[in-house]
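Illustration: Magnesium transporter.
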Amino acid sequence: RLRPFLQELHARLALPDASTTNPATDDMELGGDQGNVPMPGSAKIQPFEFKVLEVCLEHTCKCMESETLALEKEAYPALDKLTSKVSTLNLEHVRQIKSRLVELTGRVQKVRDDIEQLVDDDTDMSEMYLTRKLAFQRVDESSVKLDSNKHASPDHEDEKEEEDSGDDIESSHASSAFVKPDVEELEMLLEAYFVQFDGTLNKLCHVSRMVYINQKIFYDHCN
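Result:
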């Protein structure tokens, strides 16, 4: 299972983005040697970390959906056999299916709940914007270097107090960007996969109910 995932990840990361195909976006980046780090307010480019996240979610979703479909194809005929002919062999087969069903349901439920918890917390989602955080960090570092050069010049000694006040305002504005972060892009990505995992979970719950009903009928018949 790991090889298809790595192949898909490599292929997705190799795709060109807007920064390499549209020269108009070049001026929006932090210099030619800064890598694919868009400035705040620049054209939308899917960050590297979201490309990786999407491939991970997509691969996990496909694997769990495939396991669910395989379990469905095996479970319903096994339940029909148990209904038509009560036997130890048929009952044991259903028990094995139930065990696998519980294990798979737990894994799907865990991923679904983790996504739901993440979507409900804007602060946690903002921490996942690694490219944006790096961009702000580089801007801050550049500002510090520029301010240091200005303050080192005698011509700017009289303006130091006024500039420091301006720096405080700019720092306040930069910090406020993370108070109520823009996480719409990540939120939409997570919600799309939440729906898919939720659908898979519903299928598993339906199979689980059918297993429970058939087992109850069997035990009632035995009693």
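Reading the tokens back as a structure: The radius of gyration is 27 Å.
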